[in-house]
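INFO batch 0412 | record 1 of 1 | parsing
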Amino acid sequence: MSFSRLLPLSIALAAAFIAPARAESLLELYEIARAQDATWQSAQSLYQANLARVAQARAGILPSANLSAARTRTWIENNNPPTDRDFTAQTATVSAAQPLYRPANWYTYLQGEQQARLAEYQLYSASQDLILRLSQAYFDVLGAQDTLAFVRAQKAAVAEQLASAKRNFEVGTSTITDTREAQARYDLVLAQEISADNELRVRRLALDTIVGRTNVMPNALAAPLNLPAPEPANPEAWVDQAESSSPLILQARANIDIARLETEKAKAGHKPTVDLTAAHTRTQNFGGSSASAADSRPKSTSVGVQLNLPLFAGFATQNRIRETLALEERAVADLEAARRSVAQSVRTAYFGVVSGQGQVRALEAAEASSQSALEANRLGYQVGVRINIDVLNAQSQLFQTKRDLAVARYNVLLGHLRLRQANGTLQAEDLARLNALLAR
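INFO prediction complete | emitting tokens
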């Protein structure tokens, strides 16, 4: 991507612009983003909340215990025989229950285990999203830096051509048209520079937001760059891998299991429940009780088995079963939709990488051709067989090709990450491989 023969000054400006003193690698920024990105922190908090909800589901099959206490004062008035007295009673009761047979509670517990798996898949998906968002923002900054550097290099080249046209006009070897054409092109490049500078500022803000820091400077790509090909080189192999690794498919499967357990829980509405119960009550009467005028401290302990059998609930249970069966069918359909969506995304991402690599090769050839065309037009302009506008057009074509080539390279690298995200295998190790392509 060197054009030192054309613009040595612009190269120095671009190098000063792209290579700041404290540039950071993609992997370094990823570690920072894991501690700073608000979206990722929110996903982690949701995961912890889901785990706490799972623990709540377990409570239905565990024993429960309660302590209750009361203090009451009673006044008694009776005409036959004449009685007028009052007394105070203090009562404390400890009760406990252990479910012996509660099928609804058991299915709720099993649902909790499935929801724990679902929470893990959701967190994994959020982790992949963080990797892709950070990489997108990272390469957006690099692309914006390249664009600004190319625009500034083009401005320097157009300024040189403008100065040449003015000199030729002054000595009478060219017309005023050449000067005006060069001036118009120079003014256009100035506008492009303002736009590119603002675009870079916006892209840096986006990267700073994810990392949680200001003035983040990413490392540029190393040169020469060897873009890797997808491995395996078969889209169907990537689709098959997604069946067991895609978070979307895994979440859809977990939702089917949860829906089936919900159906079983609804059917449990027809079944009895059996609990083991125990209670110990201690009472202290001051001033007697309703049965006696003497103080007393009675105690009572009970242990038993409690059976509840539902008989009729207004057809609520039957309709609840119909509802859960319909939701179960919906979950199955959602799984099939997730499979199709993931397969389409994987194939699209795969062919995007392959076509992107072909585009890079074509643009590399176009860059060399554009460089040769510019040199030929410059030589032709010097000998009088080409006019100024030919040189300006050749310069615009060269720098536009350079911008397109830089963007295409970044898109291929991002395409690899999108492909792995699509089939569910995107991990931090993939950033480490990309990190090896960055300048040290």
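INFO post-check: Residues 122 and 224 are 39 Å apart (CA to CA).
INFO record closed
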